[in-house]
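pasting for the record
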Amino acid sequence: MELLDVMKNLTIKPTGNESEQKLFKSIAADIDDVPTEIVIADYTDKTLLIVSQYQKIGREEQQVAARYLAEAINITKPLCIFINLKSYDIETVKACKDIILDLKGEENV
């Protein structure tokens, strides 16, 4: 099952204000020849960002990459981020940043 399919199946508690919830945006891209899925959802009070290349979380490299991405894409509200990359070298993380910025740019169209 693709990541976006999983995200669409999540139950989101209604807030009474439907405008607070926006649709998830997703893109699949090859970064360093590794299939990568990126999902972003922008809410009034928080942003959800998921970057995944495989199913494992919790390493220090992931925390450093997540902080870099949050700062690089100028997130000003609380951010929930899940990031799973096969490589945490700076080129890979910067490629993720560029794709996320492009994806966020679509919101302003």
